[in-house]
Fold each of these.
Amino acid sequence: MRSRTDAPRHRDVPRLETVSMWFTGFVVTVVLLAGVVVFRSRLYEVRLLTLAGIYGILAIGLRLTLGELGELNLGHTAFYAAGGYLCALTVKNGGFDPAVGLVVAVVAASVLALAVSSLTIRLSGPYFAVAALGLIPVVTSVLLAFPDTTGGSFGLSGYGGGVTSPLPLIGLTGPRAWLIFVWGLAAVAAGYDHYLRVSRFGRSMNAIRQDSLLFTSLGYRVAGYKVAGVVISGALAGLAGGLIALFEGNISVAAVGLPALLPTLLVIVVGGGTAVPGGVLAMSVVMTMAPEYARSFNEYRLIGFGLFLLVLLRFYPAGLGSFSVRGIDRMVGRWASRRGGGSPVGGVSDLESVAGGDVTS
Amino acid sequence: MRGVTKRFGGVVAVEGVDLVVGPGEVVGLIGPNDAGKSTLLKIAARIERPTQGSVVIDGRRTDRMMPASVARLGVHYGFQRTRLLPELSVQDHVAMALADRRVVPSFLSFGWIHRTRSADVDRALTDFEITHVRTQAAADLSFGQRQLLCLAMASVRDVHLLMLDEPLAGLSGESIALVRRSLDLLVSTGVSVIVVEHRLKSLAAICGRFVVMDRGRLIADGLPDEVMGRSDVLDAYFGGGTRR
């Protein structure tokens, strides 16, 4: 029997991830507080913040495949488009409740993700990225091929969605109710993302990212984990698609297909795709709000944005999310060394690699 | 393993190899560089697929199976130059070798180390004398520690066929004795072992049988002393016999 005292405790949740959870909570709280402040100001900002929440959910889905599985899924917004259109069609043609539309959006995007990931399972790296990218024109063409159902290039509208429509499930109305509803879902998505990171499933995805051949040679079926990862990511994109269709009250391929891809990529790269969902959410707020506030600077705002990206990625290549993580990490490290303990394990390992022990072979 | 041939494009890496390894047998697979030793092990582990020929492990034909399924039969391949996940800690590596392989249950448990198996992880770390580095990331280990970790991972699995690609490279005398003790322990439970190694003296102390490959073919098979006395083996291995 092993006594409780002498055995070192297994650290199941490394500190970095605990910090990431704090940061997520921090961001969500700040945004909600901002929302409360905005309650007394313009509806326009409430609307932008709500959009930021929806983009955040979309980006968290993409972060999951890039950050954990190490695969860049350039077809991510095809799931978003499919979810959005199917949600709108369920409400418009089926006459169902918007809540049913959301469920249909999630299920449809998951099924599409399952099909695509099963077909591309042997691909990885740039090959997977390009194969996945091919999905967007396929989905777009299918949507444009049936203008009687999908409205062609004009898209769908007039199905009762929009910012003044009642919320799915809850039935409350008003832009502020939408804001809280969407950010509630974004918080759930971020929490789920964190849960996946610390679960053995997340660890397995991480192992695949680091060395899938070693993982296979231990008897793990890489394909199963990869497909499951892409399906979860697709489900989040479907949820975001359904939300955007309901919130905007219209949907067209010009808004949800290829044009949505680049901003989403930017959000996860700058937000910290491999680090924390909180950074991703923060960046989606920045990306949505900043251009609006910077409108008075005209073309200078693009230069400013470019400079912001360059400087940020030069000094914080791990993205916005690593801001707080590093600060807190250093604080905890200093505190630990003052108390005579060594540097704790599990921090930002690329910078503060733990000193090696004695070689006693 | 019968009539196994592997071609990479026009290059023949392994040609018509027949090899039978009995339960509890320790075979040293030796030969000059590029003789096809590692390729042969990879074919047996189904990491490579043979161009021709068949592989049967525990009565089941494995050359058409999925790599992960072959691994689940109890086949363990220890990669050359120790393949580990750089960001993962030592104890998590051992736990990963122990953990449930199924996808769905993996959603419901946290981390690699399962409560019920943590004693097994501790035992393996103690057996291979790497307890003091258990929380270090694999990237921060010395080469010898990496080798020991690879063996610890193999030891916790339910292994029937263990294949090690240069497991003694970078190990000191004490560690070699440690590897030898653990191999003896595994062999006593009926595990078959194939070891590729260039340190022939140490290898001869571990193995009861040497198999020699040269340019993709099997050229000799027998007791270590017997095999190393043959002139064709010496020619192939040392290019005309410079030193033993």
Note: The CA atoms of residues 207 and 215 of chain A lie 7 Å apart.
Amino acid sequence: MATATDFDRRWIFLAIGVLVLGLYAFGSGAPMPVSPYVQSYFDTIDALPEGSVVLLAADFDPGSAAELLPTYQATIHHLLLRKLRIVNVATWPAGPPFTRSSFAEIAPQYGAVYGSDWIELGFKAGDDVAMGQIGQSLLSSFAQDDRDKADVTSFPIMQGISDSFQGIALLITMSAGYPGVLEWIAQAGGRYDVPILAATTAVQTPDLFAYYPSQLQGFAGAATGATQYLQLVVAAGVPALEGTTTDNQERMLIQTYAHLLIIGLIVTGNVLYFLGRRGA
Amino acid sequence: MLLALQQATEPPFFSITAPDDVLGAWLICFFTLAVFSFLYKDNPFYKVAEHVFVGVGTAFYTLQYYEEGVIGRLYEHMEQAGRALGEGGSGVMDLGGTPVPAAWAIGLRSVAVLLSLMLLVRLFRSGSWAPRWAVATMVGIYAAIKMTGETQSKLVLQVEGLMRKPLVNPELASWGSDWAAVEQTQVFYTFANLVLLVGVLCALLHFVFTFRRGKVLAGASRVGVVVLMLTFGAMFGFTVLGRYALLIDRIDTLGDYTGGAYSLAPPPAAGSAGALQLMLSPPVLLAVLIALVLAVAAASRKRSA
């Protein structure tokens, strides 16, 4: 007698592929309700006084760009719109190219000047140790900037920054895994009392609920959080992100139906399993 | 040619901000589809993509670590320290936020280099004592750094947060009419915090093995198992969410390359649908070719068996 375990799983792959392709071609999205975690992410940035310096860490790579790049770019838009200054770092080697390309596209829209409104410090190896060192002394962690290879102390944006995160009003990480937000919380949040925000991949998101709001002031988890945050940023006055927001809303519709398919498959698999066990 | 590449300030095809080129489009589509072909079965297309990915990834990461670790932290550091020494031997260097004399900066960094070299001895003599010193140093430092921060964030503050969690929040309305905002009501707040409190205690009690399991402990343990399973279920759900996001992004990328600029077919005449252009675009043409080759290979295998 054939059982559920004899089923060729390639049919499942095909079903998912057809469903996703079909919805991608013909589906449409709708606005999502915003969760308190994402609202807090937005509000924390919005509440910063103009000219404050924010440390933005691009702790992700191309493998997680699908989930994190929209939030990363929306965050840059939001920060520059609010006239906040950005110090960019990365503890993932593949992070700096995203910083370079994103600022090349976004900074001119706000007339932001390199060195005054934002700076790219580049990649720092060492995971947790590097994060601890950045917290201890940002200036000695990066002797030169990543773009112009000039002494970091020569840039106006670095003038008010000193050891132990003095001069840094907020730390935001785009966290794809290890090292990421949990390590920033342990190495920077606890030691230097700097508020932390995070955008995370879906896999990492369940870990973060326990840290909100005492150790993590807000987070945009997964593509869901990204879509909600994009909606808020567009509503705040960034029409350039309307296309990305619509794309993400459409993706969330695909996600919804694809999840329903997975739930259906799990239920079917369990029913077949128990029926097979009873028949044996 | 290499000289010309070096002299160019920012060659367009090395820059992530460069517009997509036609060759790049074909390569992106080929490697994406080659990886997807693994869903059918392991095959040479997937192997090629896998090896190229590992090779390119290794090269990129090696270069990044070389620039940051060797050029930045060793070469430039030593050069700076040498300059400071040349100023009369009284130069002071910043080492991890601490000012130290230049001679000390050179000495301490030399110890790090020595430990790194000792680590490499393993390549030549597997049982040597030398790598153990380097590993022991790394483990010791890493444990010390992790212990303080992790204990604070994952234990002390978590326990404190749970103990200080009030069951009543006077700022919230007792009950609302809007179901979308049910999370912001007093009833939900109290219920959620009660679930949290009971859930954490029961999950912890599940791992108490010191005492014989009476009715109370067994019951609490049972609830703890349910809490743990709910947690794993939520984690699985989020993982599926993430994987779908990646799949949709890949399909979106493939969709971007169905445009006429990347197709082998000439632009369609005015009024025609452009089906040929779509068929000869990188994702469609490559998908058909890969599927065809795999089908022919499967048929010939079946015939020879």
Note: Chain A has a mean pLDDT of 92.
Amino acid sequence: MNSLDPRVNRLPEIVETESHKVPLDQFGTFEVFVEPKEGKPFQHEGCVHAPNLEMAYVLAKEAFTRRFTCTSLYVVDTQDVYVSPMTEGDKNAYDSIPEVADDAGDKTSFEIYHLIKRGKQHVHAGSVSAANDLHAMAIAKTTLNTGKTVYNIWAIRNDKIRFTTPEEKDLWITLPEKKFRDASEYKGGVKLKNFLEKTN
Amino acid sequence: MSELALKELLYKMADDQLILGHRNSEWTGMGPLLEEDIAFSSMAQDKIGQSLALYTILHQLGERDPDTVAFTRNASQFHNCQLVELPNAEYDFSLIRHFLYDTAEAIRFEALTRSSYEPLAQLAAKIRGELRYHTLHANTWIKQLGSATPESIERLQKSLAYALPFAVGIFEESPYEKEIIASGIFEGEQKIKEKWLAQIQKILAQTSMYLPDIKIIQPIVGGRMGKHSEHLQPLLDEMSEVFNIDPTAEW
């Protein structure tokens, strides 16, 4: 069906035989984390669409760090983020995590993220060494849980992450000079005022 | 060392950055993906910024101010290579040009970090992070699309065959080549070209594409001497439209 109206083109085709549902023709998503200053915790910023992890890193760099200075960036496939149940009120998400979890197999490093305030972004809480996602949360329950309410916990296997390499640390060195990317730098209000005064 | 030789080097580099920065910015709002649109536009902006830095050095050497130099010259007064002025056409061509040009650019500036001319060495050190991102971006795309589907491979291969004679023209030698090398300002086009060939070969080897035999390619030169294709003047006319209406306008 050819139409200039995209809603018409999105109508499902009429298929006569039974078959599997066809995946959408679009890229998967990758979560983006940014370290705003050296030593500050990484913070979740949002996600990008990309065909793979390396492309996600390349695209995330400009999509999320072209305006505000940062010192490092990393990306991970959305499917590699293990998510705890979401809580509300004063219920701690750690309450639903078991203290003991299956720990069979080799240990590897996991990054643990906490959602401290609803509506804000997840912030890095620390790293743990664990055998699997749930085990990582169980360990975090004893080592990173301060008793303060956490609404949601993420555990991400370190070896699934595309980190910024040490030599890539210079990717952002000229960013503080790029003030022209900041809308407030144009002082639109002042220019408009001057223009109106001139024309009146 | 004559100042003429130094200015010739600065002009050709500045003009390359300005013209390609303008060309690449034509993709703003029309990129193939939202994220790529932002990335490609950002890099175009970087190139304009790098050209400004080079025109500023020229201004300190007695040339006219950057805006005047950028907006008031005719095509025959520009020293950019012809590769950067070619129209965008399809995205495969823009990606291939980005890969071929930015690889050369990164190698050139890397060499200039050791330049005996201090302002150039400082600029090269300062923008190394920008260039690292530009080449990372180009290499990642070429590796991705260069081994993705028969269509993507074929389109890139065709664009590569078209762009390559122009790309070899990046390394057109200056009339002051010997002088500039002897003075320690720049190690010369020949050396840069060898490193460039090795690098693009290294990336293409990780794809299903191949590099055509460079020895039988007739480089398209002349740009450095002010000889350009019919595509440069319309670009300049568009770029300087506002400036020509009101040279004092701020935007």
Note: DSSP finds four helices and seven strands in chain A.
Amino acid sequence: MVSFTNVVFYIFIFLSVYAQVFFLVTFFENRKKIITRNGRTSLLSYPAVTVVVPCWNEEETVSKTVRSLLDLNYPADKLKIFLIDDGSTDDTWDAIRRFENYPNIKIFHKENGGKYTALNLGLQHTETEFFGALDADSFADPESLARIMSYFEKDPNIMAVAPSVVVSEPKTFIQNVQTTEYFMGIYLKKMLGFLGAINVTPGPLTIFKKKVFDDLGPYSRGHNAEDMEIAYRMQKNRYKIEHCHDAYVYTNTPRTVRNLYRQRLRWIYGFINNTIDYRDVLFRKKYGNFALFTLPTGIISIFSVGYLFGRIIFNFGNFLYKKTVAFHTIGFHLPSIGKLYSSFDLFFINTQSFVFLVVLIYILVIFSMMFGKQMAEKKWSFSLSMLYFFPVFSLIAPFWLFKALYSTVVKRRPAWR
Amino acid sequence: MTSNVDWKKYFIVFLITVALFLTAAYLSNYFGGKKINELKSIQDKLSIDILSSETQFSLLSELSCKNVSDSVFSSELEELGNKLEWSEQNLGNTDEVNYLKKYYSLLQIKDYLLSKKIAERCKVKSAFILYFYTTAENCSECERESLVLSNLRDKYPGLRVYSFDYSIDLSAVKAMLSIYKIKDTELPAVVLDDEVLTGFHGIDELEQKVQTSFKLQEVKPGDAPKKS
């Protein structure tokens, strides 16, 4: 008899394979368009850009962030930099003030009101055609802005361009896992870009046409994921978002699982709640692949991670139960190595269909990581963290997932940090 | 910006995914079939071996105990049993697996009868346990009893354990069930030296009985072990 849980299991596998194949087909359709540039990028014209750096207790990294902006390969008179202290309680303000004499830097200080309020203050003072933000824990590659701007030059319909976000100097184990995850993110975002279905315009250096905000209004809180909310709003109004894969921005990532948990809780909570807010977009053909692919895939992945976790816990519990029963029945009994060796037999390798499909999903995910890495580092290479990404994330992701669902139900918004 | 939904692509990806599923199902079937064939070939070999021993035994009678006592198939039967159990859990309760299970039960009975004869006539030190369990319902005591018995079998190489699924549709097994008057409400059931023990029996109790069974043979070699 086919059990209910098995049917659910195969449905999730089917949907996961579908999503992966969809990305792969998109890749093969567009692979010739993915050209990674080397050296200095030059543009026909250099439109004026305002980059806002919202800071809240970022004394340690903000100087490096500002220096990376000053080192951009972009004419200084065309680049306005706003440093906005959103009521920091540490020495961020002092760190910012060291830059106040630069001709193209303006500094602001305001009461703490959340990142979106700092961004909106920047927007109010923006007089340039282009606007962007750079999180104060991230550093722009010197070529990044020019490469992003080349997209606007190429296609006047583009309203926003997101860069490739790469993990800056990973040191801890959990940072290495995230490095791999971000590589995969670059690949996925590029494919979503081809599909016209990007759902986040990340805080690290996404550049918008100022017109977006003039037309659609300023940033909103967006459940503490304002960079997701604005992307949803743009998609709803069918404003084109592109991904510039060879514009690199390096970002600091959480060093510990605890901090990662907080960050992801905020992201997933933002995803769930923004999707709920924009639920009328879902499956509506006129909103394109964003409504038919990106959002459903995100929703399905939340359910599959939850389901998979339940399955792992159930199997593990079952295993423990069996071992306990065995212990109570016959006492502690270790089979000898010889017996284990002789009982090894190819016969006992599981060959149910799902095994082949799970292996296939693994291979496709590893491909996406390797290709993402190729786009980021211009070389094909395999790293061990690609293998342990899956087990590590499938064990810890459910925690922030369930917490985010719980917080959504009880309507409690998670804090930033 | 116009919505650029490429329905053809959604459909093609769907077809590719279905094709991948079918491929996975085909592979699974292929390897499942290979496993069934492996089981069949083990059974065929065992069946020939048992038949040949029986024939040899009948031909030579008591004269050639030495040759006959070599024909102990315990490990092969055990391997077959393990693989069948695994197949039942992982390949599903298919007709083929069921058929193989019947065949296996029959081989066990034949092995039991033959080994018993050899033990009696040739003074081979051995003890026999017939074990009845059920898979028709969730029988946690059966699982525990199985653990006890496989543990005992590891400890005493001379102990031969034959296990039978109560719900199997095989007349030979049904005959044994009626000989020992075993009812489905009393499972698991263990038959040791013609004594029927129903319900769960712990390792200490059974171990003692197994040792006694071995001793019985030592005291009165050649006698059919009968419990008073």
Note: The first helix of chain B runs from residue 7 to 60.
